[in-house]
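retry 2 of 3: previous attempt timed out while embedding DLL. Reduced batch size to 1 and resubmitted. Inputs unchanged:
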Amino acid sequence: MRCWDPRIEEMPVADLRKLQFKLLKTLVYRVYSFSSFYHKRMKEAGFHPDDINSLEDITRLPFMHKKDLRDTYPDGLIMSEQEELVRYHVSSGTTGKPTVVGYTKNDIYNWTESLARALTSAGIGRGDVMQVSYGYGLFTGGLGLHYGAERIGATVLPTSVGNTERQIELMQDLGTTAIACTPSYFLHIMEVAEKMGVSIKNDTLLRAGVFGAEPWSLETRKRIEDATGIKAYDIYGTSEISGPLFTECYVQKGIHVWGDMFLTEVIDPKTGEAVEDGERGELVFTTLHKYALPLIRYRIGDLSIMDSEPCDCGRTHPRIMKILGRTDDMLIIRGINVFPSQVESVLMNIPEVGDHWEILVDRKGPLDMMTVRVELTERGFSDKIGDLMKLKKKVSKELKGVLNIAAEVDLVEPGTIPRSMGKAKRVTDNRKV
Ligand code: DLL
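retry 2 succeeded.
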């Protein structure tokens, strides 16, 4: 199937904008009238819903931040009565107070619809066996993809994370054709399969993966695709705006963000001003349909680039390019900005380097020190000191070329760096401790 909902997905841009305007106006009136939080915020900003006379007028509304959800924990921003809610998801709270998201039946319906469109655009559908290897539970990945895959008529294999050997056996026995998990977990699955003597390319029917929930580079995509012969699609979303929502289509030139459900802006994180299409900035989402927890101009903190031109696949909704990282992921090392995704891009281009790496940051006296611990492949690992020294020099040089900063490189044996089942922890910044 080409499109799950062609009427919406291929809607002329002018009609899409008209629809967005209508939905935005309804949303703004609703929250102004029924939410004390929004009413107060809008009053403080000198804003009245009558001020929305075009889509661009959205910029007259104040931004929202994760802090607003945390300050109103657990449910201060939830606008539905509890008996209208059919589900909660809760963030892990590793970086602060957790955030709670409530869903009405219709919110779950729309979330699932968003994924049904997305998975269809990646060529997944009826007849596919989709292994959902994201965590089930408070995290949105497992249940979100489960519902999305069922909606399109795929057969779901709800393995969740962990027990990797069993995952691979089931993949073979039940003929998994598509898998959804974090890219780092899939790299682990690849490694375990190899140890078991299973070739994903030749001994399974796997042909597609939807990988996200953490940053991953185009170089990692290439590694995965080359090693396994599958197509690796990016999937994006955050719990605050429902969970996983958007994927790339088969063209693989950006992630389609459904304009009838979300209004997407990209802003300069410093000034809050809009940046042009093609320029990097922070993503800001306004939810046009979400009922229980509507969000207006919510600053997600993720950095990306928007392309509003219709895609080669025929879909007219805007696309966002690979997420570079979060504004708060950025490390400042001796005054220079470093994104872990830049490190990944460099490393994944060096054949001797394996799939696992981490960054350690320390402060020695007044100086920031960054160490990149790099696991080598079995082939890349040599017991000749001379070879290792040469390789270390090469890795350092390539990192310096991209990062503009010297990093200490620590080459380690295959299997040294802890594997992740969910989101990989790539950075340990001891300066903060
Ligand atoms: O990670 C939802 C999700 C589940 C997305 C499964 C994709 C697949 P949170 O736990 O709230 O929700 O984390 C959201 O993860 O703000 C990004 O920083 C990061 N993230 C999610 N997808 C990607 C991606 C889920 N494709 C946070 N690339 C977001 C880079 C991603 N980062």
